[in-house]
Amino acid sequence: MPDKVQLRSSLLQARTALPVIEWRQKSDDICSHLTNSQLLTNAKTILAYFSFRTEPDLSSLFYDSNYRWGFPSCVGKTMSWHVWKPGDSTNTGAYGITEPNSDAPIIEPNEVDLILVPCVACDQLGYRLGYGGGYYDRMLSQPKWQSIPTIGIVFEFAYLPQLPIETWDKPLQNICTENKCRDAINRVSTLNYV
Ligand code: ADP
Ligand code: MG
């Protein structure tokens, strides 16, 4: 099995090589699947991400004001989550990632119904390959975050049978690609469609 570093690099290269028109279409398809998922429609406060380095773009969802959207700001080795809506200002944070303003209201774990997690790759068990910072592993290892539903967001080519994992890797509960949303294997289904 290739190691994480090698896998990360080749999958990021493949994602960067996607023609913009395909990236747009696949991103829109992911948004449609999410819109039709009961995990989303039953939620009120959803944590998401601003697309970075050709990650699937979920921004069309953020205009739906039925939901309260939260986005991360990296503070040292942890993420703090802030309310953001279209039109609010942003700044460029650690790693060059767009972040909400740090004076925007903070969202606490007990207010969160769903977390949309950006991934370099996901496997059928829900394990995630990130950028190597371990930010989501650290977050999801904390009891206050552990029971909140999670959906890993990846393009289908990066949905793999099995990723190399380490003791600290935390699996996600669901995976959504441009083809469909799936429950991670070994999980009771949470993906009822409306
Ligand atoms: P990623 O999940 O971003 O692909 P890795 O799984 O390789 O990255 O994790 C990156 C680093 O994060 C590892 O060196 C690991 O030590 C650290 N890490 C992950 N989870 C925790 C945790 N719960 N507590 C402390 N450090 C952690
Ligand atoms: Mg990890």
Sum up the structure in keywords.
5 helices; alpha/beta; binds magnesium ion; binds adenosine-5'-diphosphate; 194 residues; 7-stranded mixed β-sheet; 22% helix; Rossmann fold; 3-stranded mixed β-sheet
Give an account of the 3D structure.
- The protein is α/β, with parallel strands linked by helices and 194 residues long.
- It has one domain: Rossmann fold.
- It is 22% helix and 23% strand.
- The chain has 5 helices and 12 strands.
- The chain has helices at residues 4-16, 20-35, 38-41, 135-140, 143-146, and strands at residues 45-47, 68-75, 78-83, 90-92, 98-100, 114-118, 121-123, 128-129, 150-153, 159-160, 174-176, 181-183.
- A hairpin with a 4-residue loop joins strand 7 and strand 8 (128-129).
- GO terms for molecular function: 5-formyltetrahydrofolate cyclo-ligase activity; ATP binding; metal ion binding.
- Keywords: ATP-binding, Ligase, Magnesium, Metal-binding, Nucleotide-binding.
Which secondary structure elements does this structure contain, and how are they paired or packed?
Elements: H1 4-16, H2 20-35, H3 38-41, E1 45-47, E2 68-75, E3 78-83, E4 90-92, E5 98-100, E6 114-118, E7 121-123, E8 128-129, H4 135-140, H5 143-146, E9 150-153, E10 159-160, E11 174-176, E12 181-183
Parallel strand pairs: 1-2, 1-6, 6-9, 7-10, 9-11
Antiparallel strand pairs: 2-3, 4-5, 7-8, 11-12
The structure holds adenosine-5'-diphosphate and magnesium ion.
Residues 130, 134, 137, 169 line the site of magnesium ion (MG).
